[in-house]
Write a structure and sequence with these properties.
By secondary structure, the chain is α/β, with parallel strands linked by helices. It folds into two domains: 162 residues, Rossmann fold (3-Layer(aba) Sandwich); 167 residues, 3-Layer(aba) Sandwich (Rossmann fold). The chain contains 15 helices and twelve strands. A six-stranded parallel sheet has the order 9-8-7-10-11-12, with helices on both faces. Helix 8 links the parallel strand 7 and strand 8. The protein is elongated and about 70 Å long. It starts with a helix and ends in a 5-residue tail after the last helix.
Length: 344
């Protein structure tokens, strides 16, 4: 998302200021170094007076908050000193029909009334937003974007490799239960048992299930990689796979698609609806089904000659989520909400 913020900050019609929490992921320190970004220390993250002062000093016309789970940010919507501002809420939570989600319209009604727009991550989050009582006209898709510039040439670079299209699967993500890393390893074992000359599987990430990768035949653990290293990793592989049990969207799916890779992902991934077209540029697999995932791995294996064409189909689909496209969409949304009076 840093590239998206840079694209937005570069616009002449936008004066961008970011207040954020440090990431739990060990990204390089320079990831946001050139952005107008204030990272809050742990003792500051619930300090409403400090956060309000940081926001108010810029006299913003538009304020974007990320969901409703951080009380100080929700409290901004009720502060008299920010009465002239328009508020936009970003949300990626998909509708799941839980009791908490069913009572949310009552709990959040005051916040909802104050919003001028809501930006969601795909159709499933849009469904939830509608159930919260957000008017359809105020719901905008496109919460997430990605840095496409280092990725657009990778398909051609991969095709030109001396050994041809790589026979290697790639997973990038956390090694945790919700990401389905255990399902992926199970499916990969089944796949290896079903074919001769199985492809290898590279995993890039970290998490409390990292031990599942140790001493697993055909599996290489590259551990956590920095964003700057991702293009090289993507070039070396022939297909991307992710087995998530829960994935509100999945920016890495868009990145792999922009790099021209065929995509295998579960139907739990929000980006599956936006990026992956079944049997066109990859396959969408039922979540929690290792056998179905193993069959999808074999589907890729058996179509090696077709993979450059399958992967090429991913690129124009992913282009809609590039940093430039993202910044244009958000800038237009800002202009639209400014034209309307602030919500009461």
């Amino acid at each position: 998302m840093a590239a998206c913020w840079r694209a937005l900050a570069a616009r002449q019609d936008i004066d961008l200021h970011i207040i954020a929490l440090p990431s739990a992921v060990p990204f390089a320190d320079d990831l946001t170094a050139d952005l107008p970004c204030r990272l809050l220390a742990e003792h500051q993250q619930n300090d409403f007076n400090l956060i309000r002062a940081q926001v108010a000093k810029h006299d913003p016309r538009v304020i974007v908050i990320n969901g409703w789970h951080r009380p100080p940010y929700v409290q901004l919507t009720r502060d008299p000193s920010l009465a002239r501002a328009r508020f936009i809420m970003a949300m990626d939570t998909p509708w799941q029909g839980t009791w908490r989600q069913r009572v949310a319209p009552l709990i959040l009604r005051r916040l909802i009334r104050r919003l001028s727009a809501v930006v969601v991550a795909g159709d499933r989050a849009a469904n939830y937003a509608q159930r919260l009582g957000i008017p359809t006209s105020q719901i905008h898709r496109g919460m997430y974007g990605f840095d496409d510039q280092p990725l657009t040439h990778l398909h051609a670079k991969r095709e030109a490799l001396p050994g041809g299209w790589p026979r290697r699967f790639l997973y990038v993500g956390r090694y945790v239960h919700t990401k389905g890393i255990d399902l992926l390893i199970d499916a990969y074992r089944q796949y290896r048992a079903a074919v001769s000359n199985p492809w290898s599987l590279t995993c890039c990430g970290a998490g409390d299930l990292a031990h599942l990768l140790r001493d697993e035949s055909g599996v290489t653990d590259r551990r956590f990689i920095q964003p700057a290293d991702l293009p090289g990793i993507l070039t070396e592989h022939g297909a991307f796979v992710i087995a998530s049990r829960f994935e509100p969207w999945g920016v890495v799916i868009a990145e792999a698609a922009a790099a021209g890779l065929p995509i295998l992902c579960t139907d739990a991934c929000g980006a599956a609806l936006d990026i992956v077209q079944h049997d066109h540029n990859g396959r969408i697999i039922k979540s929690n089904d290792a056998a179905a995932l193993a069959a999808a791995l074999q589907w890729i294996h058996d179509r090696h000659a077709d993979l450059p064409q399958i992967g090429a189909r991913s690129r124009p689909i992913a282009a809609a989520f590039s940093a430039d496209a993202w910044s244009q969409q958000w800038a237009q949304m800002f202009q639209n909400v400014i034209q309307d009076p602030p919500a009461p």
